Amino acid sequence: MTAPTPTGPVLDVQHVTRRFGAVTALDDVSLRVEHGELVGLLGPNGAGKTTLLSLVSGLRRPDSGTVRLFGGDPRDASSRIGLGTTPQETGLPPTLTVGEVVDLVAGHYPDPMSRAEVLSRFGMQDLVKRQTGGLSGGQKRRLAVALALVGRPRLVLLDEPTTGLDVEARHVLWQALRDYHADGATVVLTSHYLEEVEALAERVVVVGGGRILADDSLDAVVGLVGLRRVLLTVPAASTVDLAALPGAHAAHADDLDGRARRWTVLAEDADVFVRSLVGADVPFSGLEVRGASLEEAFLALTARADDTADAAPAPAAVHDPARLAEEAVR
Ligand SMILES: Nc1ncnc2c1ncn2[C@@H]1O[C@H](COP(=O)(O)OP(=O)(O)OP(=O)(O)O)[C@@H](O)[C@H]1O
């Protein structure tokens, strides 16, 4: 990277609240991101992720609290020189070719990437002469993310970068982002795809109901909820309710062959659960105990936040433990 390395945090959000009428989109949120981090903002629809990015990129002002970008006010153009963003939806001039659009954007920066570099990072060399109006939705999305990097920004903000991409395109884009991060950039992305956050982010910030529910390394966020996943096979004839045994949090079963069922139990205490299985004389086989996934941690964290919120009840999908297990094992 050619841009000088900043000294303080790349972005610093302190006690920020932002309302839209009666909706509190962000409620006393604080977040610091240091140079070189790769941060995933994870949260359900309406959690406040886009609002947070809009404050950081100077599109909106907080009602209270402070937002600093490279130490300055993000509403000053000079603070945004080192920033590259891709919003959720992007408009591209339809009659320009891919190469021309890259050149057009590059013209706004002092030290841009060359056409060839941008297109090769994103595997788009073959599309250089195509008019953007003729690109598929996924190709447009890929180009939009590529354009965010043309000016060699020190910080890249990506709002759901791979929405609408097929698996292969998603992997190309992930690799491009990893490479760019390895070159020294700071990357903050929002995503609904847990797989995306697991694949990319070193630090995971779980946002729900306008608040930060967890902010730590991927492993720590998963470890935070303390859930374990216990897998076991039980004869179909057995009537024992595994979810009701001590140590269990929720359970879900799939029929194997009509004679047996494969259970997935989310356990708050796997040791207690396995001891109670034995104590209850359950004729189980094929026992496996694993750590929870990010998805399980995420569902448990957002369910907890809903339980403590004063607001209207959350959707049953998040509240119902059986459903939680069902979602978690898919
Ligand atoms: N311009 C606006 N006017 C009114 N309400 C808004 C506006 N922008 C956001 N909101 C509300 O603020 C809350 C947070 O929205 P935001 O778009 O930040 O969530 P998000 O986490 O990005 O969601 P998604 O994952 O669906 O993009 C939501 O309840 C949303 O309806």
From TrEMBL:
GO biological process, one term: response to antibiotic
Keywords recorded for this protein, A-Z: Antibiotic resistance, ATP-binding, Nucleotide-binding, Transport
Positions of region (Disordered): 310-330
Residue ranges of every copy of the ABC transporter domain listed in the record: 11-234
InterPro entries: AAA+_ATPase, ABC_transporter-like_ATP-bd, ABC_transporter-like_CS, ABC_transporter_ATP-binding, P-loop_NTPase
SMART domains hit by this protein: AAA (SM00382)
Coiled-coil region(s): none
GO-annotated cellular components: plasma membrane
Bias type Low complexity, positions: 310-319
GO function terms (MF aspect): ATP binding; ATP hydrolysis activity
Cited Gene3D superfamilies: P-loop containing nucleotide triphosphate hydrolases
Main location: membrane
Topology within the bilayer: Peripheral membrane protein
Compositionally biased tracts (Basic and acidic residues): 320-330
Subcellular location field: Cell membrane
Protein name (database record): ABC transporter related protein
Species of the source: Cellulomonas fimi (strain ATCC 484 / DSM 20113 / JCM 1341 / CCUG 24087 / LMG 16345 / NBRC 15513 / NCIMB 8980 / NCTC 7547 / NRS-133)
Lineage: Bacteria, Bacillati, Actinomycetota, Actinomycetes, Micrococcales
